[in-house]
Amino acid sequence: MKLALALALLSLPAALVAQESPKSEAAAQDAAEITYTAPDDWAASVQGRMAVYTAPEGNLKVAVVQVGSAADANAAAAKAWSLFNPQAEREVRLVTAGAPGDGWEERVNISYETSPNERAVASATALREGGEWVVLITDGSELVANKRTAAISLVGQSIRPAGYTPESFAGRTANPLTSERVQLLRDFVAVSAETLEVPGVAIALIDKGKVVWQGGYGVRTLGEAAPVDENTKFMIASNTKGMATLLLSVLADEGKLRWEQPVTDLFPEFRLGSDETTRSTLVRHLVCACTGLPRKDYAFILADSGAPASDTFRQLAQSEPTSDFGELYQYNNLMASAAGYLGGALAYPDMELGAAFDKAMKTRIFDPLGMSNTTFDFEIGESGNWARPHGFDVEGEVTLLSNRFNHLITPHRPAGGAWSTAADMAKYVQLELSKGLSPEGVRVVSEENIVERRKRGVPIGENAWYGMGLMERKIADVSVVTHGGTLQGYHSNFYLLPDAGIGAVILTNSDAGASMLSPFLRRLLEVVYDGKPEAAQEVAAAAARLEKQAEVKRASLTVPGDPEVLAGLASYYEHPEIGSIRITRQGDTLAMKAGFVEGPIATRENADGSVSLVTAGPGLVPVEAVVGELDGHRTLTVRDNQHEYVYVETP
């Protein structure tokens, strides 16, 4: 699975660039004019108008190249590569335009062909202000890039042209969400959903403790008439994490845990890799995304169904951090799942872990807040007024999806398995804004322990930090507390503007909905603080990007798969820890089933001559498996964030 890298901002002090530049005084002055923030633990090298930053591992570089004039973005990128690495001969895979902003009149993202076996990333972002281009290049190990996403984001998000003063809302009085301003947000949602072809969206808006509007746009199911409203159920995915850490806050109030307490004091069965790592893991480490444990999602995406809640702890026992505690942001669903199950075990120690967690969330969180439509029960979630998931098929068309894939979260549901509605989520946001009071004014959790979750932890980009199941961003000098959620066909966010007393919820039922979330926050800030109108441009750029991505993906695949490749496949492959991959016949073609992913097989010839099998069914998450051989046995190799799974043919 390739990581899509969006470069962020670098800010080596301008004086250093000017001092070390061997160019003329004019060129040195030009080199000093752009600003950006560089990762402070990466090695820096300045060569004329190019600054190169090398990750501590030594095999990943980010370069900032001031190209000057160029005919267009592609020409600017070519000039940048000729300076950075004249021997590089990467083929361009995808070119997409981003929305203007941060002082840049043009922003173009370019990705290059790499092979799965290479485990490499190669990308460029070309930025233009006036007639001058600056290009950011990321080149090197995909494993390290996945590990150091926060540092890469810091570079890409912070770079700004000469003389640009970032927008600031500091000192501005927040506008109340009057009916007129609410209508602006509703109109934005309606137009954005139509532009992005999102079938249904639910939103809720809160101001000064009151819900000022909640409702929906569009339909629950493509092609049907039933509308989305404030009581339509969506899967909220990782928005569940903040609720699970809220449970820990309540239990801290009850004296059942302390944030700085070793997990093994409370749950002796817990294990994380080595004995030393296990002993060092505190309660807060389970939800801080700072323990250095990489994502291991394929371990449950590819697993067979029916695993118990205890499988979270089995998988963690087989895992080891790849960076030190507190060193880097690395998001891990299993750790968040363990946190929720710890809470359930402390609340109801005599119950099975999953049942204990479900009951603890109901009695400590959902019932006190009146969240009557929020549940972990799929039978309830997939009944009545619920939004079906949608995604793109192999041709790039939006289509209805089965929700079977999302059942994978059941054994790990504290990390992302809740169903909820805009109306219920509004009550949760009201609790957060009031720092612990229910909408009726009843104290549910202490201010001390609810706010503890928001404290800035590990950095995740420019002016952004992860707390405990929540993150904070500073945008135009305004604090935004937030978290998002992603499952197949469901994408959502909630936002708090604590200083303004304003909150919002947005739930969508399509993979294209992911492209609405950031623009929706931007539009909220525009409406509240009279900001520059940029959100609509972001949506337009996202729609064009999605169309181009689908076009390029389809062009890379042979559908149905290459007959010669398919004829050479075994019918059954097995991995000793994960499970199996089955190759079966469906009509005139072959299909692949790997855990919760199933679909007809397409093939892709990679740049190094290897061949990948790719599930070509609709949805966000395909399985890509590289065809190979090991000790005379046929193999399929699947890779995710920092792991490799080799499946070997088995009779």
Structure explained in plain terms:
- The protein has 19 helices and 27 strands.
- The protein is of the alpha+beta class and 651 residues long.
- Helix 6 (179-196) runs antiparallel to helix 17, helix 6 runs parallel beside helix 18 (535-556) and helix 7 (239-253) runs parallel beside helix 12 (333-347).
- The two termini are 27 Å apart.
- 52% of the residues are buried.
- Residues 1-32 have low confidence and may be disordered.
How much of the polypeptide forms β-strand, as a percent range? Answer: 25-35%
Shape field: globular
* Termini separation: 27 Å
* Uncertain stretches of 5 or more adjacent residues: 1-32
Q: Tell me the structural class.
A: alpha+beta
Helix content: 25-40%
The gyration radius over C-alpha positions equals 25 Å
Order the strands across the largest sheet as they lie in space. Answer: 9-8-19-18-17-16-15-14
Biggest sheet, open or closed, and with what strands and sense? 8 strands, antiparallel
- Helix count equals 19
Number of strands: 27
Determine the mean pLDDT: 93
List its traits.
single chain, 651 residues, alpha+beta, 8-stranded antiparallel beta sheet, 8-stranded antiparallel barrel, 19 helices, 27 strands, disordered N terminus
Quick summary of this structure?
This protein has 651 residues and is an alpha+beta fold. The protein is 30% helix and 26% strand. The two termini are 27 Å apart.
List the helices and strands and how they pair.
Blueprint lengths: L13 H7 L4 H9 L9 E5 L2 E5 L5 E9 L4 H12 L7 E7 L7 E7 L7 E10 L2 E10 H6 L1 H10 L20 H18 L3 E8 L2 E9 L15 E2 L3 H15 L9 H4 L8 H6 L17 H4 L9 H7 L15 H15 L5 H17 L8 H4 L8 E3 L5 E3 L18 E2 L1 H12 L13 H6 L6 E3 L2 E3 L4 E5 L2 E10 L2 E8 L4 E7 L5 H16 L5 H22 L6 H5 L4 E4 L3 E8 L2 E6 L2 E9 L5 E5 L8 E7 L2 E7 L4 E6 L2
Antiparallel strand pairs: 1-2, 2-3, 3-7, 4-5, 5-6, 6-7, 8-9, 8-19, 10-13, 11-12, 14-15, 15-16, 16-17, 17-18, 18-19, 20-21, 20-27, 21-22, 22-23, 23-24, 24-25, 25-26, 26-27
